[in-house]
Structure formats: C-alpha cells, structure tokens
Amino acid sequence: MNDDFEINDPDSGVSIHAGFPNPATDKRLRSLDLNQLLITHPSSTFIFRIRGDQGANYGIFDGDIAIVDRAATPTKNDFVLWHDGRQFKLSRSAKMTDSSTLWGIASAIIHQYRNVTQ
Amino acid sequence: MTTGRQQFPEHVFALVDCDNFFVSCERLFRPELEGRAVVVLSSNDGCVVARSNESKALGIPMGAPAFKYRQFFKDQSVIQFSANFELYGDISRRITAILAKTVPHAEVYSVDESFLNLSEFGIADYAQWGKTLRQNVFRAVGIPVSIGIAATKTLAKLGSDYAKRNHDLGGAMDLVNITNEEHQSYLINFPIEKVWGVGRRLAPKLHAEGINNALDLSRLRPNRARQLMGLRGLQMVNELNGISCHGFNPQRSQHQTIMRSRTFGEDTNRLDVLEAAIVSLTTQAAWQARSERQLVHQASFFLNSNRHKPGYASWHEAINFTMPTNDSGNIGRLILERLKTIYNERQWYHRAGVTLYDFIPEEILQMDLLGEIQPNIHDASRARMSAIDAINSQYGRHHIYYAAEDLSKSWRPKHNLESPHYVSSWDELPEVYYSQFQQAVR
After folding, report:
1. Above 50 in pLDDT, residue B18?
2. Nearest-CA distance from B255 to chain A in Å?
3. CB atoms < 10 A from the CB of B331, how many?
4. Which of A28, A108, B51, B132 is exposed most, by the fewest CB atoms within 10 A?
C-alpha cells in the first residue's frame, strides 16, 4: 500500500487511491468456510457427540463429532443415526426396515487431535 | 341462509402452527418421550407453558401452577422440563428458514406460528400442498406442524386448529375450496373462545348474547358487531365470512416491545441483588434490540413482591430517552438511578422486569435525526456495543458483562429441570453410540 499514489482533497472529501487493487477487498473472494464443506442443509443439520469406541473399525472414536442431516435421503452405504427407544445409535446402514426410528444421516465425522475450542 | 363468503378469494393465507412446540422440541432429542405425558414449565418452574397431547388428556390446564401439581405429576409420571429457550429459539429459526424457502412471503407471528401469503401462487390443491409442507418441515427439524389455508387469517387459524385435532386430515386443512355448507358446518363446530381475537374477556359477553360458536358470530349484523365489540369485532365478523381485514404484514416479525423479566431464586430486599438483576435484564433486552437494529425511545421496569404473601404490591417506572439508544450502559444507568428512588430496604421483592418500547430503526436515526442526536456520543456507544456483541457471540453469551451484573447470581432462577443446550453448547451435544445395526427395541 505504501507504493500507492494517493490524492486527498480535504475540501471535497474525495480520496482517490491508485495502484494495484487490493484483492482482499473484493467481496467475491471469500476465505474457505468449513460450514460450506460440511453442511448442505443448515436448517436440518444437527451436531452429535460420538460415545464409545465401537466404531473404531470405521475410524469413529469416542468424543468425535457427527454432523447429522435429517433431510438427506439415505442410501446403501450411509452412516445412519437412529433411536433404539433408549439411546441414539449410529450404524452403517443395513436395511432400515422401521423408518420411524431413523433420525438422520451422518454426513461427516470430525476427529480432533487437539482441542481448539475455549 | 347465505353468507358473505367469497367463492374466489382475493387473498389466500396459510397459518403454519407448530404442535405443542416446546414439548416437540424436547422430544426431538428424547424420542423415547413420544406417547408420554410431558409438560414444559416457565423459566422459574412456576407454571405450565406447554403440554403434550397426553398431558392435555390428563386435564392439566395451561398455566397450571407447578407447586400445586407436583404430586399429580409424580403420580401420573408426567415428565417435566424447565423451558430451554435457546433450544426453542434455534428450532424456531430453522422452521422460519424452511418456510421462507418455500414461499417468499412469510410473516413470523410468534415463536411457533407463521403466516404465509399464498395469494399469487395458483396452487391447485391446497390440502395436498399443506401436507407436503408439513412432511418437509417434519423431515428437516422433526417438529409436527398443523396448517390451515383460507381466505383470511382468522379462518386460516381456525383451519390449523381443526387440522391439529382431526388427524385424518394429515395435518393440513383447506378452507378455500369448500362449499358454503361445509364452511358453515366448520364454523358451527368451533367454540367462540377459540376464535382468533375473542379471548377470555370477550367470550362471556358473547355467550350472554347467545353467541356460542363461530357461525353465530359470523352472522352478527355489522352494526351489532361494532356495538358489542368495536371495530375489531366488526373485522372479526368479516374475517369469518372470508373478507380479509388483517393483511399480510412481514414487518410484524419485528418486536413491538421487548420484555425480559425474572423471578428471584428467593425473595430479596438487597439493593445490590436488584441492581444486578435489572442490569442483566437490560443487557439481554438491549442485545435483542441491537440484533434487530432498533433504537428505543422509552423503557420501563417493574418490581413485584410475592403474590402469594400478604401485602402484595408492585412498582412500575417509565423512562424516556431524549436520544434514542440501544446501549445497555445508557439504558441501565437511567434505570438504576430510578430504581434507587423507589427501593425500600424493608420491602421484599420477588420479581423484576425490564421492557423496551417505542422503537425506531437505526437507519432512520442515522438519516433523519442527525440534528437531534449527538453523533459523537452515539457513534462511541455503538462502537462499544458492537465490540461487546462481537466478543459475546464469539465466546458465548455473558462473557463480557457490566460490572453491576456480576454482583450477585443469587437472583438467577433455578433451571434444575432444563434439558441440555443441545444446539448451543459444544459441551452439551446430544450423544450417539456406534453400534452394529439391529432392529429397534420398542
């Protein structure tokens, strides 16, 4: 910015900047946003905490975060979130015969190596 | 007998009304409570503010005082929750977003009701359209809604009430494409108390006149309606006959007043506790005003002694701001000054509240009233408040507060039955266990 040639006219209140435009001021250029990557339908997306290490074979560990979309359409290999009458369960979908227990589809599992919140 | 109902109405409104909204929100994360009697209690666990259908069937009235019903709840295994307004607010915003995607014109009427303007949509089958919307909302947020579609808002509300009680309708009722006979039969089965705008005060007066249902009301002559109930009554009669008097008003979603009140954990006679409560309530109310980009001209606060103890009394003070503001500091300072003038150390106080009203949008102030306000003070105060808001929204509410707020937490209500902050706290997320898929045990 120091190289910019600048004209300031205090009477008119007009300030003219010349030189290279600063790309950071271009509103079309946005930083990467993890919401955009992880959340397709914000209105129907809820966040769960994984408990237990039963999912370790699939790389799902205690304390992980599950992004769950209620409005997504289940397909064969989805991880589905359902309720067994006592607890929420996450399963690699086999045949979901009783759809009334289906709560949503996990679209992502987040495993944090270091806690960055707080 | 012919009614004034128009066959091809100029307007079509849909009312989307969430079924037992607070209870439905609690059940979203506790699906095992489906089919159980559930109640939600007001913030100080004072009284019932929402009931599941099972609780209604047990005869628990709206507003039932919790202390009177504690044994009954125990005997009948009624599940109790303290109101979790962060959860309800979040779900409400999600529903509003879904409705706004469906129809460009949505008017948020309350936390659990929205009017949609369908006038220009040319929907062939309103009932089917409503059922589909109901399914979409349920699929997205798990909240059941009932939808009434009609030529006026009053009839749309009546329709949603029918849809709620008659499950064979599939959650949506079309009052547009019906015959006059059907229209009349729906009105005759609708008690006068439930008509939008009648309320508890007007109903006995109407009963005394022999007006017992919506059809009786719709047949009142205009002069008589006006005489009995004023202009609003006349509008009510017109609306029941399909003549729209309450237009579509998307601005309605802005608050007319912002009120925050709390009951003290236990009655108090301490000035510092009162001050802390007032400042905290002011902070919350002003935050709301700022989030809506509104400035207030007037504020008021009240104090009550305990209604259930002898010598019940209440105090109410109003304050005008020469310069409109939404700065918690400015508002709080004037309220605290006034508080000192009515405070009496021998008096025990039970409840406090702060109301902000007489709003003008921030933009209007900036454009039109520059001569009246002191821009420097205004700018400094705005900058300070946005800084505080930014920090609070980044680190959670109440991270920064005014010194007076911190004096005492003893006034804070006991939220012992509140459900976790499922959608607003990383430490309270709903939990899920990985498991090989197996048939649900019911």
Report:
1. yes
2. 23
3. 25
4. A28
Average pLDDT over residues B204-218: 93
Partner residue facing A54 (CB), from B97, B430, B434 = B434
> ipTM of the predicted structure?
0.77
Nearest in space to A50 (alpha carbons), one of B27, B441, B435: B435
Question: In CATH, what class is B257-406?
Answer: alpha beta
Q: Do B142 and A86 touch (CB under 8 A)?
A: no
User: Crossing angle for the helix pair B199-208 and B222-240, nearest 10 degrees?
Assistant: 130
Order of strands across the sheet with B48-51? B48-51, B38-41, B79-82
Q: Where are the domains of chain B?
A: 13-18+88-240, 21-85, 257-406
CB contact (8 A) between residue A42 and residue B437: no
Site from B32, B425, B434, B435 to mutate, A interface, most A CB atoms within 10 angstroms: B434
Q: Of all helices (H) and strands (E), which one includes residue B274?
A: helix B271-291
Nearest to A74 by CA among A51, A86, A90: A90
- A15, B203, B396 from A22: Cα distances, Å: 16, 67, 33
Contacts of A93 in chain B (CB under 8 A): 437
Average model confidence (pLDDT) across chain A: 79
Question: What confidence tier does B15 reach under pLDDT thresholds 50, 70, 90?
Answer: very high
Are the CB atoms for B58 and B37 separated by under 8 Å? yes
- Would you say residue B207 has pLDDT above 80? yes
Whether residue B427 lies within 8 A of chain A, CB to CB, comes out as no
Which pairs from B102-110 meet CB under 8 Å and 24+ separation?
A: B102/B133, B102/B136, B103/B14, B105/B248, B105/B250, B106/B250, B107/B248, B107/B249, B107/B250, B107/B252, B107/B253, B108/B252, B108/B253, B109/B15, B109/B252
Query: Is A117 close to B426, i.e. CB distance below 8 A?
Result: yes
- Asked if the C-beta of B313 comes within 8 angstroms of chain A's C-beta atoms, the answer is no
Structure tokens at B332: 């709080």
User: Nearest-CA residue of chain A relative to B140?
Assistant: A44
Q: Which of B142, B422, B441 sits opposite A84 (nearest CB)?
A: B441
Instruction: Find out whether B202 and B159 touch, Cβ atoms under 8 Å.
Output: no
| CA–CA gap between residue A91 and residue A82 (Å, rounded) | 8
Look at the pTM and tell me if it is higher than 0.90: no
DSSP secondary structure code for residue B307 in this structure: T
For residue B5, report the phi and psi dihedrals to the nearest 5 degrees.
Answer: -65, 135
**Superfamily covering domain B13-18+88-240:** Reverse transcriptase/Diguanylate cyclase domain (3.30.70.270)
Fold (CATH) for B21-85: MutS, DNA mismatch repair protein, domain I (3.40.1170)
Token pair for residue B333? 């300072």
